[in-house]
Amino acid sequence: RVLARLRQTVGDVYAGLGEFAVSEPLLRDAAAALAAELKPDHAAVASVTISLAALLREQVRLDEARALLE
Length: 70
Prior knowledge:
By secondary structure, the protein is mostly helical. The protein is built from 4 helices and no strands.
């Protein structure tokens, strides 16, 4: 779980720098790892899902972002 949260943090930093191509795989890896380990309603799963949706929104990939949040 620690490695997944670290990937999320680094992914968020890269997203903040506008490095979306670097950020996305980190966030997707973190999301997959946390989803496999925790219940869907766990705060860590929600947090990484929101981070990934925000990244997709910044890239105007609105359908993908919306689908994650539904």
